[in-house]
Amino acid sequence: MAPVLNVLDDQARARLIRRFGEGVTTWCDDLPALVARLSERWGLTVVDAKPGNTGRTLICVGDDGAMKVL
What we know:
By secondary structure, the chain is α+β, with helices and mostly antiparallel strands. It is built from two helices and three strands; from the N terminus they run ααβββ.
C-alpha cells in the first residue's frame, strides 16, 4: 500500500473530538490507512489535502493522469 500524506491534521482531529467525543479517536487513527486502501483500489495517488471544518478534500491523480477529488 502506498503511503498517504497526512489526511487529518491535529487541528481537524481536535475539532472532530470536540464535536463527536473521544470515541472518534479510533476513526481518526484509522483514516490514513482507509484512504490508502481506497486510493490503491481506485488507482489514485493523493497529492494534497485541503482543510475544511471537520472534513477534508483530497486532491488526487488517477492512473490515467487526470486530476481527481475525494
